[in-house]
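user: can you give me the structure for this one chain? tokens are fine.
assistant: on it. calling the predictor now.
[tool input]
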Amino acid sequence: MIVGVGIDVCDVARLGERLESTPGLRERLFTEGERDLPLTNLAGRFAVKESVAKALGSPGDLRWQEAEVVRLESGQPELVVTGSCALRAEALGGTHWHVSISHDGGIATAIVLLEAR
């Protein structure tokens, strides 16, 4: 059963401008494992983080670094949540995350599903 769904888009160029103009923003938004990725990949991961918040009902206590996208050997993205994100997912009965990321025309798109099995 799906207990949460979120979708978001991120303008790649706009994110790049914000990262350049705001000191410390890259460190605040992204985990150590994400920070050095190309801008297009960062935009996709930012869209995932926003989608996670929406799937969890957008509670105000979520932290950006508590949702991390890692790449499996197959190339498939996998979502790892910790802290308040993990606690909120558990409170909703969520046990499995599904994530899809796409890039086209300068836009990164992400869809996140939280499933209870």
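assistant: here you go. Residues 15 and 71 are 21 Å apart (CA to CA). Strands lie at 2-11, 67-71, 77-81, 96-104, 107-115.
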